[in-house]
Amino acid sequence: VQLQASGGGLVQAGYSLRLSCAASGMVFSRYALGWFRQAPGKEREFVAAVKRGDTSYSDSAKGRFTISRDNAKNTVYLQMNSLKPEDTAVYFCAASAGVITSSLRNSGAWAYWGQGTQVTVSS
Asked: Can you tell me the distance from the alpha carbon of 21 to that of 70, in angstroms, rounded to the nearest whole number?
């Protein structure tokens, strides 16, 4: 399984970015997919996940970010609107075939990780 994240960059507060994560080596439709982020000096934290048709979000992401998947393209997206300086972090995509719903927010429950893409939001 390989995950390749892209789409990060430097934006001003209030602007939007869309992250993409292309997957290979897996039956994409069978996997839960997630996004986590890690800011300097902080632990990796949950942002959003999609399992089957259900989505979940962190409190900070709810209402601003949207996770979606395109099974035909083996790609998961994270649309991030109204970005804030505190959203600055390296964003990682993750995949797992066996993660249970109650463990989606636990980074240790995810089997595969992408390399990360940097998002920097200036004030």
From this structure: 10
Check if the beta carbon of residue 23 is closer than 8 Å to that of residue 111: no
Give yes or no for a contact between 46 and 114, defined as CB atoms under 8 angstroms apart. Answer: no
Q: By 3-state DSSP, what share of the chain in percent is helix, strand and coil, each rounded to 5?
A: 10, 50, 40
Examine the pLDDT at 98 and tell me if it is beyond 90: no
Say yes or no to pLDDT of 88 above 90: yes
pLDDT tens for each residue of 25-56: 999 999 999 999 999 999 999 999 999 889 99
- Partners of 79 in the beta sheet? 18, 66
Alpha-carbon distance of 46 to 108, in angstroms, equals 11
89-96 and 117-122 as β-strands: parallel, antiparallel, unpaired? antiparallel
Q: Are 87 and 9 in contact (CB under 8 A)?
A: no
Q: Which residues pair with 88 in a beta bridge?
A: none
Dig out the tokens for 74 from the structure. 């083996």
> What CA–CA distance (Å, rounded) separates 101 from 84?
28
Alpha helices in 10-91, H assignment, sequence order: none
Q: What's the DSSP call for residue 15?
A: -
